[in-house]
Design a protein that fits this description.
The protein is mostly helical. It has helices spanning about 5-15, 50-55, 95-100, 105, 130-135, 140, 150, 155-165, 170-180, 185-190, 205-210, 210-235, 245-265, 275-280, 290-310; strands spanning about 25, 35, 60-65, 80-85, 90, 125. It comes from Cerrena zonata.
Length: about 350
């Protein structure tokens, strides 16, 4: 028995239904499917309705300047994208990260992924921001299984990169190096800390410094101050007496030298420049009538500048190394040497 007669079937057959074999488009407004042909076209144009998403420009993102998408690693193009917490993208090589990490980069990377089937690079989300990944990476390297004693030594790219940034954040670099016992990095950073007052270091940063590195930094400041005091305390040598210049003239020169250097002895600091020493002490020559006395002053100034220039400017484990530039004559009996940066 037929349930549909011709009066019902014929209209269904003759109806103009869309051919769903054609390309279809989606409207983001009502999710209705329209064919590429037929009457369901945009009223204003002859083009079909295009999804709103496809009309948008590709979304922009921030990219690291050091690890950009155009980076050439020598063994291939970047195949992994790391995205920081603040959405900065880092383009790197998977095999390089796996080679230096002992925990598969905190289990974020797998050595068994076949990259030939990878159709799109999905960024791997990290918890650190870009500032940490760029400058303060030492703090998080151990988290990602990177042994600092092996991969943060002179000559490695990371070490060289941090050294370049050290002049801008010397105290922070020194503290981080001290936290991980990276003596060579701390030694470089200490050379940029001569001009700071150790008493002005915030308590929070002091608490991060272990006792050994704090002592070495204090010793650097104290001993350089003592070396400078000893160098400038000794007056010029006496020349042979002449009819015009004898013992009394030499005593007058010593008194003038003491007056000129008294401010250095009282306010000496580890970062006194050679230019300041030269300008202060050489001015003494112009008040001396004796040519030989002037030469003695000039010779003594040159000796001070030479020894001050070779006085170590960075931390060392043996404080006696700082005093190696001094001669026995540089220790003047009866003079007490003090360092103004000692805590009270």
């Amino acid at each position: 028995m037929d349930y549909l007669d011709d009066s019902i079937v014929d209209p269904l057959i003759s109806a103009d239904y869309p051919d769903f074999s054609d390309e279809v488009y989606y409207s983001s407004n009502d999710d209705f499917i329209y064919p590429s042909g037929g009457d369901n076209m945009n009223e204003n144009t002859s083009e079909p309705i295009i999804p709103v998403e496809s009309q948008k420009e590709p979304s922009s993102f921030s990219m690291s300047t050091a690890f950009s998408a155009y980076m050439n690693f020598g063994d291939g193009e970047p195949d992994v994208v790391l995205m920081s917490r603040d959405a900065v993208h880092f383009f790197v090589r998977r095999n390089r990260l796996l080679n230096v990490s002992n925990n598969q980069f905190a289990l974020l990377l797998s050595p068994y992924i076949d990259l030939s089937f990878q159709t799109a690079q999905q960024p791997i989300q990290l918890t650190e921001d870009a500032q940490t990944l760029n400058i303060q990476a030492i703090q998080t390297l151990e988290k990602y299984g990177i042994v600092l004693s092996t991969h943060l030594i002179p000559g490695t790219p990371l070490f060289d990169d941090i050294v370049l940034k050290t002049p801008y954040q010397p105290l922070e670099v020194y503290i981080v190096a001290a936290e991980h016992d990276l003596f060579q990095l701390a030694q470089i950073a200490s050379g940029y800390l001569l001009s700071i007052s150790l008493l002005s270091i915030p308590r929070m940063q002091l608490s991060r410094l272990n006792s050994d590195y704090l002592a070495m930094l204090y010793n650097l400041h104290i001993v350089r101050t003592l070396v400078l005091q000893r160098l400038i305390s000794r007056p010029p040598d006496e020349h042979e007496a002449t009819f015009q210049c004898g013992f009394s003239a030499y005593q007058a020169m010593k008194s003038a030298w003491s007056v000129a250097t008294s401010s250095f002895i009282l306010n000496a600091n580890p970062d006194v420049s050679a230019a300041l020493i030269r300008n202060t002490l050489e001015s003494l020559k112009f008040s001396l009538p004796c040519i030989r006395c002037r030469k003695c002053v000039q010779d003594r100034v040159n000796e001070i500048l030479l020894k001050w220039s070779i006085t170590p400017r960075t931390i060392c484990r043996d404080t006696g190394y700082y005093f190696s530039v001094l001669s026995p004559q540089d220790s003047v009996p009866g003079i007490t040497y003090t360092a103004s940066i000692l805590p009270t």
